[in-house]
Every structure is written in C-alpha cells, then in structure tokens.
Amino acid sequence: MRLGIDIGGTKTDAVAVDELGALTQRVRLATGFGHDAVLETAVAAVARIGELTGLAPGGFQSIGIGVPGMVDTASGQVAHAVNLGLEQLELGGMLAGRLGVGVRVENDVKAAALGAYHLLGLTGTMAFLNLGTGMAAGIVVDGRLWRGSTGIAGEIGHLPVDPQGVLCACGQRGCLETVASGSGVARQWPTDDPLPVRALFLAAAEGDPAARAITARLAAGIASAVRVLVLTVDVGTVVIGGGLSHLGERLLGEVHEVLHDWERTSPFLASLDLPGRVRLVPEDTPVAALGAALVGEN
Amino acid sequence: MRLGIDIGGTKTDAVAVDELGALTQRVRLATGFGHDAVLETAVAAVARIGELTGLAPGGFQSIGIGVPGMVDTASGQVAHAVNLGLEQLELGGMLAGRLGVGVRVENDVKAAALGAYHLLGLTGTMAFLNLGTGMAAGIVVDGRLWRGSTGIAGEIGHLPVDPQGVLCACGQRGCLETVASGSGVARQWPTDDPLPVRALFLAAAEGDPAARAITARLAAGIASAVRVLVLTVDVGTVVIGGGLSHLGERLLGEVHEVLHDWERTSPFLASLDLPGRVRLVPEDTPVAALGAALVGEN
C-alpha cells in the first residue's frame, strides 16, 4: 500500500493506493497556512489514512507529497509556495522526522500529471495542462515524469504569444498565463462570485460581449498551449486539469472550436489532429494525491 | 566503420565514421534534382566513400541517409522534399536494392541533431535549432533522438508568436519561421546577392534602418525559439545550426543581446540562464552526415 498527499491552497487530499495502483482510501482535510500548519496538515493526513488502513507510517511502501511551488525532489525542500504561506520549508526532512520514515516530495502539477497518466491508463507521452491560478504543464514520457535538465520543463504559462499583450507577473508581456489561467480571468473579470470562471461563462452564455471576449481569449490561450506541447514534445495526449477544468465540457467545447477553426485555415495543423489529442481530467478524482503516491516508483 | 550521407538541396556530404565515432573520410558531391538523380547521388556517394575506405557497401557496419522532408524511418520513404524535387520516394528500399544492403533514412535536421550532440560531446538533453529555408529543431535526449508520438517533435517554426504577424505558408499567422529563417529574411530583404543573409547583416552594420529592423526581428525570433525549447523540454543546450549559422558570432551576439535584454526585465527568465545554454554548431563540419552515420545505432 502507498500513501499519497496533495497539499493544495485550501484543501489537502490524501489517498491510499494498492499494489495495482487502485485507490482504496480517500480523505480530505483543510490545509493550514504557514510552515507549522502545513507540516501539521501533512502529519494529520498520514494519521487519518493510517486509521482507515490500519497501517503505521512505516507500514506503507512509500509516502509521497505533492505541493505547489518549487520543489527540490532530492532534498524534499519546497520554496515559493505562496498560497501555502511558505517561503522555504524542508518539508521532506521535517515530515520524515515526525513520521520516522522517508517521504518523497514533488511539485503538485507534476504529481497530478503522473496521477492522470495512470488513472487514464495512458501509454507513450502525455502532458497534463494545469489551469489553476497560473498555467503549467507536467509531462510524462513512458510512465515517467519528464523534469528536463533544470526542473522547469512544462513551464509554458510564461511563453509570450502576443507582443501587444498585458504585462505578466514574470516580467514578460503577453504570456499564455495572462489569458488562460484563473488569475488571467480574475484580472479581466473582477467579481465577488465564489466561482468566478463559472460566473464568467454564465455571463458569456447570456450574451455579455465582454464575457464572450474573455472566454474566447481563454479558449484560444488553452488551444495555443496544446499547440505548443504538440509542436515541441509531440505529446500524444493533453489532459486539461486544474481548477478551470471543473467547467468541464463547456470549456473543452470552446477549446475544440478554436482548434477546429485553426484546421480550416491550416492544412499543417489539420494533419496533427490537435482536437483528438485533448481531453479533460476525470471530475472529482484526486489525481495529484494519486500521483504523489506513485512518485518515485518509476 | 559506418557510412553517413546528408543529401542537401545543392550539395551532398558523405562521411565515414570509425567505431569511436571519429570522422575518417569526407567527400562532397553536387545533388541531383528529382527522383532518379537523388538516388544516383546517394549511390555515387557510397561508391566514393567505398573507394576511400576500400570497403564494399556490405563492409560498413551501417549506412545512414539524412534527407529533407517527411521521413518514415520504418519504411525509408521520403515525402515532400521540395528542394530535391521529390514528392514521394522509397529512398530506403530503392537504395537498398541498388547497394545490396539495408540503409537507414532519417530527416536531415534530426540527423544533424544527433551529429552535433556527438561531435560536441554533450550529455543530457539538447536541441539542434536548424535555421535554413525554414526553422525546425531536432531534440536529443540522453544520446537518442526524441521523435515524439507522431514524429513532429521540434516543429517549432510553426508556433505563432504575433497575432499581427504575416501569413505563413502553413496557413497560420506570425509563425517563428516568418521572421527567423532564410525564407523569412528573403521575403523581407529581396536581393540578388548569393549570400542574402550576409548581405543583410552588412547593410545593418552600415546603418540601414530597414536591415537593422529585419536583423532585430531575426534575432528575437531565434531567441524566442530558444525560450520555447527551454520552457517546454528544458533542454540544457541549444545548438544553432543550418545555413544561417554561417553568420557565426555575429548572429550569436545578436541573439545573446536579446536574451540579456529579456533578463533585465524578467527575473524569471534570468533564473533560466538562456544565454548560457546557446551555442553555435562548429563551422565546416558535416554534422548531418555524421549524425546519419550514427542513426539507428542508439
């Protein structure tokens, strides 16, 4: 049995996965804010899964943690996890000290990529396109995470696609993330609605021209991210995940429409079958926790 | 001993490579135009290297051919090699019939990527950014060519980066290739000079404002290609090759200038050390023929 934990900005998912990779237990906790509270959240998650499975921490074949921010997978150190209130934390080392066993720490998007790959039974090459506050992709090649030479493979949210675009937090202009992410939508469509992107799509469906323009830019940005992933790595599948993926078929439909529009003007793009490569992550499945349980296995 | 041939639009390079990967013989022939002439060129290249090494075709450990266009590496079929006058040719099968031994056929940019990787003694991940008539990259991972799921990995010349850009032959607008390739320069700077890009750089050095603008767009396009390759695959090295690379340090200097400019406004980009990842392919080395000799070995 393996244990996987995904520490998100507000919620923490924890799962137990059996030797066949099937999810056998699942719990959800509120995530604490700041160094101590994040560590306690992880400890509590291990304890809860331990109760459900009857296993002590040392009884699991492996324990893996997915966490936002920059992760040094060798040392288990996490940096710049702003949503968790972490500037820098020796999460791997401190958690190992508390549990008495080693843990593996991985960036949450990369963990989700691995989880989605296994959950969907994919083979070959896949990208998990995470549309959360920001945009980033996790790339899996033949069942293994592709980290690249310096660990920044898949950071496609900071590829500029429009010299006339708005300034991005990264210091560049017109990055994909400025139009195709939660923060990109929030900037263009300020609202008190607790589900801002859903509110945007509702307004667009009701014919609001500003909302229509923003959703069109969002869909075009996602389609551009798919094109980037195919024309560089040539991934066979792009799985759309992250907070924006909860829009489900409505979002996928808009993206498909953009991709089909492109095919009408470009025989080259039409030959790549971009629409056929894109799918949504399964709804209500803790893919990042599942992937965290599998991290390091391969 | 291995034999490698690179069939270019005007010249064909052929090399013999010993078991340590060192180049021992090299010849250059004019390339014929059209199906029959291309096949005869390849046969003549094998004969010339055979004379120099004293080996019959069957005496080589392998024979590999690099050729422009779409290559089916399994069947040895070449399609859409416009510069060679080939719509479709069973190059692998027909050449094997003529020589009495099997040959391996690979796209010339991919062959050059493999050749440059070995010639430069690289490890890890590299992209060979070919700036010829068009723009495309060959990606090498741990000494092996990365082809992707459908063989189009590295076709970054057709990534649009400017919605206001010119129409590309592929049907899209503002592709990298429209500004950062031989054809892109030729469109903007029509000239009878036999070395049009050299003439452009000379005019720019003499202060011609139009030439300055075109070289600036060229350098920015190359820098953008480097950024794409690093933010997707995270290659440790980008080797600039192809016809435009003959501009040498002048071109590399312009590209470095763009990358350093970006670093001044983006701490994110500065953290990636893009300038430190870029280098030129060694001058006057038949990297594609060398790579063709190594194709299939790994």
Automatic annotation (TrEMBL), chains A, B:
Keywords, alphabetical: Kinase, Transferase
InterPro entries: ATPase_NBD (IPR043129), ROK (IPR000600)
Short name of any one Pfam family annotated for the protein: ROK
UniProt superkingdom: Bacteria
GO molecular function ontology, one term from the record: kinase activity
Similarity annotation: Belongs to the ROK (NagC/XylR) family.
Stated name of the protein: Putative NBD/HSP70 family sugar kinase
The organism of origin for this protein: Leifsonia soli
Organismal lineage: Bacteria, Bacillati, Actinomycetota, Actinomycetes, Micrococcales
